[in-house]
Write a structure and sequence with these properties.
7 helices; about 220 residues; elongated; mainly alpha
C-alpha cells in the first residue's frame, strides 16, 4: 500500500514539475521524434526543473516496481505463469526506465556546466537511444499490466475498476503507436491507478488480518 502511495506522490511531482516548464517545453522529449533544439531545450535552459521532474520519476519507478512485486504475490495463486510474466516484464520496465532517467539526468547536469550543442556529433545517437528506451519501457509496462489484468480478481467494484484500468492502459497504449495524440493520456492510467492499487492492497491486508484473527 505504501509503495503505491509513493508511486502516486512521484507521479504528482512529475506532473507539477512538467507544469513548471513553458508550454512548448517537455521534460522528457523522447516519446516521439523531435528536432534537436526541442530535445535539448529543457536540459539546456531549465536544468533544475528537469532534475525535479526526474527526482519524482525516480520515486515513481521505486514505487511501481514494489507495486508490481506486490501484485505478483497477490496474484500468483490465481495463475503463477501470468503473474510471473507480469512481474518479469515489470522489473524489465523499471530497469529500462532507470536507464532512460539516467540519460536525461545526465543531460540536465551537463547543461548546468556546459550545454550540449545542437550540432554535437553524438546527439543523433543520444536521441535515438532515448526514443528506444522510452518505447521499450512502455512495451514492458503494457505486458505487465496486460498479464496482471487477465488474472486480476473481479469480486467487487474496486477490483473491476482496477481490471478495466489495466485493460484500458494496454489498449490506449497500443493505439498510441498509431495515434501519438494518445501518448500523454496513457500516463493518466498510472496516475489514477496507484491510489486504487493502494486501496486493493489495504483490502487484501484487512482480509489477511481477519483470517489470522479468526484462526
Amino acid at each position: 500500500m505504501i509503495a503505491a502511495l509513493a508511486a502516486f506522490v512521484g507521479a504528482v511531482v512529475i506532473t507539477l514539475a512538467g507544469m513548471a516548464l513553458p508550454p512548448d517545453v517537455t521534460g522528457q522529449p523522447s516519446r516521439v521524434p523531435v528536432a534537436p533544439e526541442v530535445f535539448l531545450r529543457a536540459s539546456n535552459e531549465h536544468g533544475q526543473v528537469v532534475l525535479n521532474f526526474f527526482a519524482g520519476d525516480t520515486l515513481f519507478v521505486v514505487g511501481y516496481l514494489l507495486v508490481f512485486v506486490g501484485l505478483y504475490a497477490a496474484l500468483k495463486v490465481v495463475s503463477h505463469p501470468f503473474a510471473l510474466v507480469g512481474m518479469g516484464a515489470g522489473l524489465l520496465a523499471g530497469v529500462i526506465d532507470a536507464a532512460e532517467n539516467a540519460l536525461f539526468i545526465w543531460l540536465a547536469l551537463r547543461g548546468q556546466i556546459n550545454t550540449v550543442a545542437v550540432d554535437d556529433p553524438g546527439l543523433p545517437g543520444l536521441m535515438l537511444a532515448a526514443f528506444l528506451l522510452t518505447n521499450l519501457k512502455w512495451l514492458a509496462a503494457f505486458v505487465t499490466l496486460g498479464a496482471y489484468g487477465l488474472i486480476f480478481p473481479r469480486r467487487n467494484v474496486l477490483e473491476w475498476t482496477i481490471a478495466l484500468l489495466m485493460w484500458g492502459f494496454v489498449l490506449v497504449g497500443v493505439l498510441g503507436v498509431a495515434l501519438p495524440v494518445l501518448i500523454v493520456p496513457r500516463g493518466l492510467f498510472l496516475l489514477v491507478g496507484m491510489p486504487l492499487f493502494a486501496a486493493f492492497f489495504w483490502q487484501e491486508q484487512r482480509a489477511l488480518s481477519g483470517q489470522s484473527w479468526s484462526g
